[in-house]
Structure formats: structure tokens, C-alpha cells
Fold this sequence. Notes:
The structure is a homodimer. By secondary structure, chain A is mostly beta strands. Chain A has helices spanning 5-10, 38-50, 189-195, 202-207, 226-232; strands spanning 13-14, 21-25, 58-66, 74-84, 88-98, 104-115, 123-124, 153-159, 174-181, 213-222, 237-247, 250-259, 264-274. In chain A, strands 1-2-4-5-6-3-10-13-12-11-9-8 form a twelve-stranded antiparallel β-sheet. The N and C termini of chain A lie far apart (47 Å).
Amino acid sequence: xxxxxxxxxxxxxxxxxxxxxxxxxxxxxxxxxxxxxxxxxxxxxxxxxxxxxxxxxxxxxxxxxxxxxxxxxxxxxxxxxxxxxxxxxxxxxxxxxxxxxxxxxxxxxxxxxxxxxxxxxxxxxxxxxxxxxxxxxxxxxxxxxxxxxxxxxxxxxxxxxxxxxxxxxxxxxxxxxxxxxxxxxxxxxxxxxxxxxxxxxxxxxxxxxxxxxxxxxxxxxxxxxxxxxxxxxxxxxxxxxxxxxxxxxxxxxxxxxxxxxxxxxxxxxxxxxxxx
Amino acid sequence: xxxxxxxxxxxxxxxxxxxxxxxxxxxxxxxxxxxxxxxxxxxxxxxxxxxxxxxxxxxxxxxxxxxxxxxxxxxxxxxxxxxxxxxxxxxxxxxxxxxxxxxxxxxxxxxxxxxxxxxxxxxxxxxxxxxxxxxxxxxxxxxxxxxxxxxxxxxxxxxxxxxxxxxxxxxxxxxxxxxxxxxxxxxxxxxxxxxxxxxxxxxxxxxxxxxxxxxxxxxxxxxxxxxxxxxxxxxxxxxxxxxxxxxxxxxxxxxxxxxxxxxxxxxxxxxxxxxx
Lengths: 276, 276
């Protein structure tokens, strides 16, 4: 069996120099317009934590800041467990690339919290919207152009699909869609981190105008454990994303991912630069 | 005129050793049950960026991770502009305290994005709920106990006030309240960062049960510029917070802060540990 494209993108080699230092490379399979799909970069940042020999528990929170454009090719990731408590661990993570002059520069920063979780009381105050089943919704390519990463996902938009007419007629910013990896792969924390960033920029929907954009920061909270994700396996997730405030060059969008059975697996927020 | 308690809490002295290194101290005025109010700590982290000589622009995003308990007393904050682009700047920030053996340890990590913002098209897709005016709503102390920080805020809960009977009868997790500093102070980015954390833990409301809690990470996005905040001055803000997923020891809560005129000034999310 060949390696899944996401596992290729997530491949990190331990460095001999220091624990937590890894080398990897951008993936052509997840290329976006002018760099890698940000969801993959977020997943790689998380993966460096998951592969760290001192890892405690499983991901609870991840914030990734896109500081500079990533170029195609090799990168380094350094994950540091800055604080380990009894049941929680706090991480700082940096990705860097060698510049034109061979001088490495930081492209991406992140923080993560991992934790040993115990069974407690629980409740979902953000129930899954009532929507048609995945089989009732047509699969489409919702990409703005022929970019590679889009074809790595099976997307079945229920509402708020990417505009087909860029005529400035937009009046809301909510998308609901069923989604999963296009090639079968069991759900895990890294793929969930990437899936949290699969919603196209809300400003395009809101304005029906394809202005230049770039995510500057994304924060994802994880509400499931590894066993639960593995059990979902290759099932569909319901994704919902909506814009909040669009103001002077930046807007934020809020997203949720539920299992088909209605479990809220991840909540995610990002703030995005836009032009004009 | 005496110094406002928040300005005392935010007081940071530049270090001679290196740019971006500051010394400060926890504030008794904002003491919580077993440490400083997390909102003040978030504001201090942001303040180190705002006081950095190389600052570009104004805050867009701030993520603060509470890695270890802060003890009463002195701390150091180190703010580093890891990447400065044409119109954006990416920051990593760490707070540390000297331990029992005099060995400094990291208590708090953060990342921030600041930016030069230009006027663009804008829209608010999260309009302010219709609520009674501040004058129509009674001022109350919504603290879980007599903790100092609560008295630094004027809070007028419209709905979802802290339970008065801890009888396990909770059935929702939404609070709406008017709020502002108790002692007059014009709104700015630091106070907005602190105000974003003034919502008591949603699990207490949801369960009507005061279980032990602790925020592990908070992310706030800023949607206004300094002039807009200054113009709001000492006006009331409408705050809304709601829980999302409560699961195996952690829950997330989402919050918004609007000006009385209905401008969405900040959106904030946090993930909180809870026991049982």
C-alpha cells in the first residue's frame, strides 16, 4: 500500500542535534496558490509535538501563526516542551527555512497544549445543525482555482459553496459541508488540525469577490481523544464555518467539525488578512 | 490623580540587558483565588509588545497560554519580534518567575500578531444582540467569592448571571452583560485583552456547580484601532460568552465584546480545564 499524501506531508525526521528538532519538506500534493495549504503546515507543527519523545497526553489546543511565506522544499521544525505539569504540557514550536543566503529564518510559530484527559461530565452546547446526509449532497470541487490541496479532500457543500459568479452579490458568510480526506485515511489529530483549515476564506463568500487573502493565525481546540478519532476512521465530518467581523484588512472566521454521529470534535478560529 | 489599578498592573520596566525584556509584578488589585486574574496576565503579555521599541502597528491577534501558576511578586517578560514584514509583525512572548531555588521558570507563553491596518470594505456578521440599555440593568458582583479582581469591573448581567443556587440545575451556558472598568479608564488594547477574560467559567453556569477550573489558553482577535477604542473611552461594552463543548476535563468558551453602538471590537476563545 502506498503512503497517504498527508502522511508524506507530515513526514518528519528526527535530528541528531537535539530532541524536538525535526527536518521535513513541503508537499506538492498540498500546494496552494503561492505556498503550502496552511492546514498542512498546522498539522506539521502539531506532528512535531506528537513525535517528541517527551510528549505527555494528547492535543487540547493549537495556535499556529503564519509569519512568512514558505518556499517549496526543506524546512526545520523545533518543538520545545517549555513546561510539563502533572497532567498538562505546554509547547512552543517554530518552523524555519534556509533563506537565499543560507541564513535560516522563522516562517511559522506555534504554541500547543497537550494533556492527559480523564472521563468527566460532558455536554455539547453547539449541537450539529440538521442537514441532509452526505450521500444526499453532491461532491464538488470548491477550490478558487486548480490548486493541488483541494483535490486531497472530498467536499460536499450543503450551503455556502464557493461563488460561481463573482458579481459582488454576497450577503452571508456561512458554509456547511460534509468533508473527509479524498483518499481513505483514518482520522487523527494531525488530519483534524488540517481539516480545520479547509474552509475557503469567508470574505470571498461574503462579498462574492475573490480578493487576495492570507491567514495570519489559526487556533484549534480538540474535543476528542485518539480512540474516538480512530473509531470515526474514514467517516464524514460535518464542517461549518462563518465569518464574524470584517474590518480594515482583517476578518475572523469561526469553524466547527462534528462527526456524522454529532460529536463536536474540534472548534477552530482564524484571523485572515484581506486586501481592499 | 492616582494611577488606575490596571495601569499599575500593567507597569513594566525596560531592562538594560536587552530590548524586549521587562520586569513587572503581580497586582493585588487583580488577585483571583490562587493567582492573578488571567485577563490581567494576558494584558501584561500584550503590554510588553506595545512597549517594545520595534513595534509595528497595532494588535490583531493574541494567544496566551497559562503554563504554570504565577506567584505573588515580581516577574520578567520577554517579547521578541520574530518576524517583521511590510505590514505585519509576529511576536513570541514569555513570562517567567524566579523559583524557590532562584532558578527562573516559564509561567506563561504567548504569541501575538500586530499590523498596520488600512481602511477597507467591512461588515459585521455577528451583530450585537438586542438587549436592555446598561441603565436598565442592575449592577451586581458576579464573583464566585470575594476575589479582588471582580471589584475592578462594573458588571451588569442581563442574562446568565452566576448561579445563586449551586443545585445542579443548569441548562445553558450563555451570559450577556454590560461591563467596563469600575474606575474610569479609557478603553485601549490592554484593557480590551483583559475584558475578554472577565466571563466566569461556563461550566459553572452550565452545571450550576462550582467545580475547580483553570484557563489553559485564550486567543483574542482585535477588530478596532486605537482611535476607535479611545473614542469609546469609558463607555459600556456588551459582552456575550457561551460554552461550546464540555468534554473529559476541558471545555471551550467563545466570547464577543461590542461597543454600546454595536461595533464588534473583539472576539475571544478560551479552553479551560475543569475537574470531575
